[in-house]
């Protein structure tokens, strides 16, 4: 099977990996007191939100090729489904 068949899975895995790496960097910076820690138990939530804010623009830039491949895969599947629906509709019209 071609690697194009797994474009969505690859993009999702890379996106999660980028988030985990961003969270690790945020955690190290918080541990070293480079960035301020939040109050009380909200520290984890603060670090998760900061990791999301960091990983989102990075994934937009770094994962462009994978996102385009995933988009092509989805468009191809939607086109095939439309063709099937049109063929079935044509068969039903012929029966009536």
UniProtKB/TrEMBL annotation:
Alphabetically ordered keywords of this record: Membrane, Transmembrane, Transmembrane helix
Highest taxon in the source lineage: Bacteria
InterPro entries for the chain: DUF4229
Segments crossing the lipid bilayer: 12-32, 44-63
Pfam families xref list: DUF4229 (PF14012)
Protein name: DUF4229 domain-containing protein
Taxonomic lineage: Bacteria, Bacillati, Actinomycetota, Actinomycetes, Kitasatosporales
